[in-house]
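Q: Here's a chain of 335 amino acids. Please give me its 3D structure as C-alpha coordinates.
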Amino acid sequence: MPKVAVLSLGGTIAMGAKGEAGGVTPSLTAEDLVSAVSDLSEAADLEAIQICNLPSPEISLRELSMVVNEINALEERGFDGVVITQGTDTIEETSWVLDLCSHTSMAVIVTGAMRNPTQPGADGPANLLSAVQVAASEDAKGVGTLVVFNDQIHAARFVQKTHTSNVAAFTSPACGPVGWMTEGVANLPFSFTKTSGFIIPPDPVVPKISIIKPGLNEDGSLIDAVVSVGLDGIILEASGGGHVSSVIADAVERAARKIPVVLSSRTRAGSVLSGTYGFVGAEIDLLSRGLISSGYLDACKARIMVMLSQMCGEDLHKMTERFMKMNAGYAINQR
Protein backbone atom coordinates (compact mmCIF):
# COMPACT_ATOMS: atom_id res chain seq x y z
CA MET A 1 0.00 0.00 0.00
CA PRO A 2 1.34 3.50 -0.82
CA LYS A 3 2.71 5.55 2.08
CA VAL A 4 1.26 9.05 2.31
CA ALA A 5 1.83 11.74 4.94
CA VAL A 6 -0.75 14.41 5.79
CA LEU A 7 0.84 17.69 6.89
CA SER A 8 -1.52 20.19 8.50
CA LEU A 9 -0.95 23.95 8.52
CA GLY A 10 -4.41 24.94 9.83
CA GLY A 11 -7.04 26.86 7.88
CA THR A 12 -10.79 26.37 7.42
CA ILE A 13 -10.46 22.61 7.14
CA ALA A 14 -9.08 22.60 10.70
CA MET A 15 -11.43 25.14 12.25
CA GLY A 16 -13.59 24.14 15.21
CA ALA A 17 -16.54 25.61 17.07
CA LYS A 18 -16.98 29.35 17.45
CA GLY A 19 -15.29 31.05 20.37
CA GLU A 20 -16.48 33.89 22.58
CA ALA A 21 -15.40 36.49 20.03
CA GLY A 22 -17.50 34.84 17.33
CA GLY A 23 -16.24 33.11 14.21
CA VAL A 24 -14.30 29.87 13.91
CA THR A 25 -10.52 29.58 14.30
CA PRO A 26 -8.00 26.79 13.56
CA SER A 27 -8.09 24.20 16.34
CA LEU A 28 -8.13 20.69 14.83
CA THR A 29 -4.87 18.78 14.43
CA ALA A 30 -3.58 16.67 11.55
CA GLU A 31 -4.50 13.59 13.57
CA ASP A 32 -8.04 14.93 14.03
CA LEU A 33 -8.43 15.46 10.30
CA VAL A 34 -7.17 11.99 9.40
CA SER A 35 -9.19 10.16 12.05
CA ALA A 36 -12.41 11.86 10.91
CA VAL A 37 -12.30 10.21 7.44
CA SER A 38 -12.52 6.43 7.81
CA ASP A 39 -11.98 5.70 4.10
CA LEU A 40 -8.50 7.18 4.18
CA SER A 41 -7.02 3.94 5.51
CA GLU A 42 -8.17 2.16 2.35
CA ALA A 43 -6.31 4.62 0.12
CA ALA A 44 -2.88 4.65 1.76
CA ASP A 45 -0.76 3.89 4.79
CA LEU A 46 -1.03 7.25 6.54
CA GLU A 47 1.02 9.37 8.90
CA ALA A 48 -0.33 12.66 10.31
CA ILE A 49 2.12 15.51 10.99
CA GLN A 50 1.28 18.91 12.49
CA ILE A 51 3.41 21.77 11.09
CA CYS A 52 1.42 24.70 12.52
CA ASN A 53 -2.20 25.75 13.06
CA LEU A 54 -2.65 29.12 11.38
CA PRO A 55 -5.17 30.95 9.21
CA SER A 56 -3.66 30.97 5.74
CA PRO A 57 -2.81 34.71 5.53
CA GLU A 58 -0.38 34.10 8.42
CA ILE A 59 1.56 31.40 6.55
CA SER A 60 5.01 32.66 5.60
CA LEU A 61 8.14 31.33 3.94
CA ARG A 62 9.21 30.12 7.37
CA GLU A 63 6.34 27.61 7.55
CA LEU A 64 6.76 26.67 3.89
CA SER A 65 10.46 25.99 4.47
CA MET A 66 9.43 23.65 7.29
CA VAL A 67 7.10 21.88 4.85
CA VAL A 68 9.88 21.53 2.25
CA ASN A 69 12.23 20.09 4.87
CA GLU A 70 9.55 17.65 6.00
CA ILE A 71 8.92 16.57 2.40
CA ASN A 72 12.62 15.85 1.95
CA ALA A 73 12.68 13.81 5.17
CA LEU A 74 9.59 11.85 4.12
CA GLU A 75 11.14 11.01 0.76
CA GLU A 76 14.23 9.66 2.53
CA ARG A 77 11.89 7.49 4.62
CA GLY A 78 10.37 5.97 1.50
CA PHE A 79 7.02 7.78 1.34
CA ASP A 80 5.16 7.88 -1.98
CA GLY A 81 3.32 11.15 -1.51
CA VAL A 82 2.43 13.99 0.80
CA VAL A 83 -0.78 15.97 1.31
CA ILE A 84 -0.63 19.49 2.75
CA THR A 85 -3.85 20.84 4.28
CA GLN A 86 -4.19 24.57 4.84
CA GLY A 87 -6.48 27.56 4.51
CA THR A 88 -7.71 28.33 1.02
CA ASP A 89 -6.96 32.06 0.87
CA THR A 90 -3.29 31.66 -0.05
CA ILE A 91 -3.18 28.20 -1.66
CA GLU A 92 -2.53 29.65 -5.11
CA GLU A 93 0.68 31.18 -3.69
CA THR A 94 1.83 28.51 -1.23
CA SER A 95 1.35 25.68 -3.72
CA TRP A 96 3.45 27.63 -6.23
CA VAL A 97 6.23 28.13 -3.66
CA LEU A 98 6.22 24.39 -3.00
CA ASP A 99 6.22 23.68 -6.73
CA LEU A 100 9.31 25.85 -7.20
CA CYS A 101 11.21 24.89 -4.03
CA SER A 102 10.36 21.23 -3.39
CA HIS A 103 12.78 19.10 -5.40
CA THR A 104 11.15 15.71 -4.97
CA SER A 105 9.83 12.93 -7.16
CA MET A 106 7.01 12.25 -4.68
CA ALA A 107 3.46 13.35 -5.32
CA VAL A 108 2.87 16.68 -3.54
CA ILE A 109 -0.79 17.65 -3.10
CA VAL A 110 -2.33 20.72 -1.44
CA THR A 111 -5.96 20.83 -0.32
CA GLY A 112 -8.28 22.38 2.24
CA ALA A 113 -11.93 23.31 2.66
CA MET A 114 -14.30 26.12 1.76
CA ARG A 115 -16.80 25.12 4.47
CA ASN A 116 -15.56 24.59 8.00
CA PRO A 117 -16.45 21.41 9.94
CA THR A 118 -19.27 23.14 11.86
CA GLN A 119 -21.22 23.88 8.66
CA PRO A 120 -23.65 21.60 6.81
CA GLY A 121 -22.01 20.05 3.77
CA ALA A 122 -18.44 20.65 4.98
CA ASP A 123 -16.18 19.75 2.06
CA GLY A 124 -12.95 19.13 3.98
CA PRO A 125 -13.33 15.34 4.43
CA ALA A 126 -14.08 14.75 0.73
CA ASN A 127 -11.22 16.99 -0.37
CA LEU A 128 -8.81 15.26 2.01
CA LEU A 129 -9.84 11.82 0.77
CA SER A 130 -9.41 12.85 -2.87
CA ALA A 131 -6.04 14.45 -2.11
CA VAL A 132 -4.76 11.28 -0.45
CA GLN A 133 -6.00 9.19 -3.38
CA VAL A 134 -4.14 11.47 -5.80
CA ALA A 135 -1.01 11.38 -3.63
CA ALA A 136 -1.13 7.58 -3.74
CA SER A 137 -1.32 7.59 -7.54
CA GLU A 138 1.77 6.83 -9.64
CA ASP A 139 0.64 9.39 -12.22
CA ALA A 140 0.97 12.22 -9.67
CA LYS A 141 4.68 11.62 -9.10
CA GLY A 142 7.29 13.90 -10.60
CA VAL A 143 4.89 16.48 -12.07
CA GLY A 144 5.25 19.15 -9.40
CA THR A 145 2.73 20.36 -6.85
CA LEU A 146 -0.95 19.71 -7.50
CA VAL A 147 -4.02 21.26 -5.88
CA VAL A 148 -7.06 19.02 -5.33
CA PHE A 149 -10.51 20.50 -4.66
CA ASN A 150 -14.07 19.52 -5.46
CA ASP A 151 -12.95 16.37 -7.36
CA GLN A 152 -10.71 18.42 -9.67
CA ILE A 153 -6.93 18.33 -9.94
CA HIS A 154 -5.08 21.54 -10.77
CA ALA A 155 -1.44 22.37 -11.49
CA ALA A 156 0.00 24.81 -8.95
CA ARG A 157 1.33 27.11 -11.68
CA PHE A 158 -2.19 27.77 -13.00
CA VAL A 159 -4.60 27.37 -10.08
CA GLN A 160 -6.45 30.36 -8.65
CA LYS A 161 -9.05 30.91 -5.98
CA THR A 162 -11.85 32.61 -7.92
CA HIS A 163 -14.72 32.73 -5.42
CA THR A 164 -14.92 33.82 -1.80
CA SER A 165 -17.14 31.01 -0.53
CA ASN A 166 -18.25 28.52 -3.21
CA VAL A 167 -16.96 24.95 -2.85
CA ALA A 168 -15.96 25.18 -6.53
CA ALA A 169 -13.76 28.19 -5.80
CA PHE A 170 -10.60 26.73 -7.31
CA THR A 171 -10.17 26.97 -11.04
CA SER A 172 -7.35 27.21 -13.59
CA PRO A 173 -8.59 29.94 -15.95
CA ALA A 174 -5.65 29.63 -18.34
CA CYS A 175 -6.07 25.96 -19.20
CA GLY A 176 -8.57 24.22 -16.92
CA PRO A 177 -7.85 21.35 -14.51
CA VAL A 178 -5.18 18.79 -15.43
CA GLY A 179 -7.21 15.91 -13.98
CA TRP A 180 -10.24 14.80 -12.04
CA MET A 181 -11.51 12.17 -9.61
CA THR A 182 -13.85 9.34 -10.60
CA GLU A 183 -15.03 6.84 -7.97
CA GLY A 184 -11.93 7.34 -5.89
CA VAL A 185 -9.52 7.07 -8.82
CA ALA A 186 -7.27 9.94 -9.91
CA ASN A 187 -7.51 10.60 -13.65
CA LEU A 188 -4.44 12.49 -14.89
CA PRO A 189 -4.60 12.13 -18.67
CA PHE A 190 -1.85 14.67 -19.36
CA SER A 191 1.88 14.61 -18.69
CA PHE A 192 3.84 17.79 -18.09
CA THR A 193 7.32 18.78 -17.01
CA LYS A 194 8.00 20.06 -13.53
CA THR A 195 9.06 23.69 -13.38
CA SER A 196 12.71 24.63 -12.93
CA GLY A 197 12.99 25.49 -9.26
CA PHE A 198 15.01 27.38 -6.70
CA ILE A 199 17.48 26.32 -4.03
CA ILE A 200 16.78 28.70 -1.16
CA PRO A 201 19.89 29.61 0.86
CA PRO A 202 19.76 29.28 4.66
CA ASP A 203 18.46 32.35 6.50
CA PRO A 204 17.75 34.40 3.37
CA VAL A 205 16.66 38.01 3.41
CA VAL A 206 13.08 38.12 2.14
CA PRO A 207 12.73 40.96 -0.39
CA LYS A 208 9.82 43.39 -0.39
CA ILE A 209 7.81 42.88 -3.57
CA SER A 210 4.40 44.48 -4.05
CA ILE A 211 1.60 44.16 -6.58
CA ILE A 212 0.31 47.46 -7.96
CA LYS A 213 -2.98 47.46 -9.85
CA PRO A 214 -3.68 50.87 -11.42
CA GLY A 215 -7.30 51.81 -11.92
CA LEU A 216 -9.00 54.33 -14.17
CA ASN A 217 -7.47 57.84 -14.08
CA GLU A 218 -4.70 57.00 -11.57
CA ASP A 219 -1.40 58.82 -11.65
CA GLY A 220 2.05 57.44 -10.91
CA SER A 221 2.39 58.75 -7.35
CA LEU A 222 1.98 55.35 -5.68
CA ILE A 223 4.63 53.80 -7.93
CA ASP A 224 7.07 56.63 -7.20
CA ALA A 225 6.31 56.35 -3.48
CA VAL A 226 6.99 52.62 -3.17
CA VAL A 227 10.29 53.00 -5.00
CA SER A 228 11.29 55.86 -2.69
CA VAL A 229 10.69 53.77 0.46
CA GLY A 230 12.94 50.95 -0.74
CA LEU A 231 10.72 48.36 -2.36
CA ASP A 232 12.76 45.62 -4.06
CA GLY A 233 10.39 44.96 -6.96
CA ILE A 234 6.98 45.70 -8.44
CA ILE A 235 4.44 43.50 -10.16
CA LEU A 236 2.36 45.77 -12.39
CA GLU A 237 -1.11 44.25 -12.73
CA ALA A 238 -2.11 46.04 -15.93
CA SER A 239 -5.40 45.88 -17.80
CA GLY A 240 -6.11 43.63 -20.78
CA GLY A 241 -3.05 42.22 -22.53
CA GLY A 242 -0.74 44.46 -20.48
CA HIS A 243 -1.92 48.04 -20.86
CA VAL A 244 -1.75 51.20 -18.73
CA SER A 245 -2.08 54.93 -19.27
CA SER A 246 0.83 57.03 -20.54
CA VAL A 247 1.20 58.55 -17.05
CA ILE A 248 1.55 55.11 -15.43
CA ALA A 249 3.91 54.05 -18.23
CA ASP A 250 6.23 56.94 -17.40
CA ALA A 251 6.13 56.05 -13.69
CA VAL A 252 6.97 52.36 -14.21
CA GLU A 253 9.79 53.32 -16.55
CA ARG A 254 11.28 55.42 -13.76
CA ALA A 255 10.84 52.48 -11.40
CA ALA A 256 12.38 49.97 -13.81
CA ARG A 257 15.61 51.97 -13.84
CA LYS A 258 16.03 51.09 -10.15
CA ILE A 259 14.17 47.82 -9.42
CA PRO A 260 12.64 44.93 -11.38
CA VAL A 261 9.16 45.68 -12.71
CA VAL A 262 7.17 42.71 -14.03
CA LEU A 263 4.20 43.23 -16.34
CA SER A 264 1.17 41.02 -15.67
CA SER A 265 -2.55 41.20 -16.51
CA ARG A 266 -5.39 41.84 -14.11
CA THR A 267 -7.59 39.56 -16.23
CA ARG A 268 -5.75 36.63 -14.56
CA ALA A 269 -6.13 34.40 -17.63
CA GLY A 270 -4.25 34.19 -20.89
CA SER A 271 -0.74 35.54 -21.46
CA VAL A 272 0.57 39.09 -21.48
CA LEU A 273 0.80 40.21 -25.09
CA SER A 274 4.13 41.14 -26.66
CA GLY A 275 3.51 42.60 -30.11
CA THR A 276 -0.12 43.48 -30.81
CA TYR A 277 -0.75 47.02 -29.53
CA GLY A 278 1.50 49.97 -30.32
CA PHE A 279 0.01 52.88 -28.35
CA VAL A 280 1.88 54.50 -25.47
CA GLY A 281 1.32 52.36 -22.37
CA ALA A 282 0.57 49.18 -24.36
CA GLU A 283 2.66 46.02 -24.09
CA ILE A 284 5.15 46.89 -26.89
CA ASP A 285 5.84 50.25 -25.27
CA LEU A 286 6.09 48.90 -21.71
CA LEU A 287 8.45 46.07 -22.62
CA SER A 288 10.67 48.55 -24.47
CA ARG A 289 10.89 50.57 -21.25
CA GLY A 290 12.53 47.69 -19.40
CA LEU A 291 9.58 45.79 -17.92
CA ILE A 292 9.68 41.97 -17.75
CA SER A 293 6.71 40.01 -19.08
CA SER A 294 5.12 37.54 -16.67
CA GLY A 295 3.71 35.61 -19.64
CA TYR A 296 0.92 33.32 -18.43
CA LEU A 297 1.72 33.78 -14.73
CA ASP A 298 -0.74 35.95 -12.85
CA ALA A 299 0.47 38.70 -10.54
CA CYS A 300 0.50 36.57 -7.37
CA LYS A 301 2.61 33.86 -8.96
CA ALA A 302 4.88 36.38 -10.71
CA ARG A 303 5.52 38.01 -7.33
CA ILE A 304 6.62 34.65 -5.90
CA MET A 305 9.03 34.22 -8.83
CA VAL A 306 10.64 37.63 -8.28
CA MET A 307 10.84 37.11 -4.52
CA LEU A 308 12.54 33.71 -4.79
CA SER A 309 14.87 34.90 -7.55
CA GLN A 310 16.08 37.79 -5.42
CA MET A 311 16.39 35.58 -2.35
CA CYS A 312 18.77 33.41 -4.38
CA GLY A 313 20.86 36.43 -5.38
CA GLU A 314 19.92 36.32 -9.07
CA ASP A 315 20.42 39.43 -11.20
CA LEU A 316 17.90 41.03 -13.53
CA HIS A 317 19.17 39.07 -16.54
CA LYS A 318 18.74 35.73 -14.76
CA MET A 319 15.29 36.72 -13.51
CA THR A 320 14.19 37.71 -17.02
CA GLU A 321 15.58 34.44 -18.38
CA ARG A 322 13.54 32.48 -15.84
CA PHE A 323 10.31 34.13 -16.93
CA MET A 324 11.14 33.51 -20.58
CA LYS A 325 11.93 29.83 -20.00
CA MET A 326 8.84 29.40 -17.85
CA ASN A 327 6.60 30.59 -20.64
CA ALA A 328 8.46 28.95 -23.53
CA GLY A 329 9.03 25.57 -21.94
CA TYR A 330 5.61 24.60 -20.61
CA ALA A 331 3.80 21.91 -22.53
CA ILE A 332 0.98 19.50 -21.74
CA ASN A 333 0.84 16.24 -23.62
CA GLN A 334 -1.73 13.48 -23.55
CA ARG A 335 -0.51 10.37 -21.80
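Q: Can you summarize the key feature?
A: The domain at 3-192 is CATH 3.40.50.1170 (Rossmann fold).
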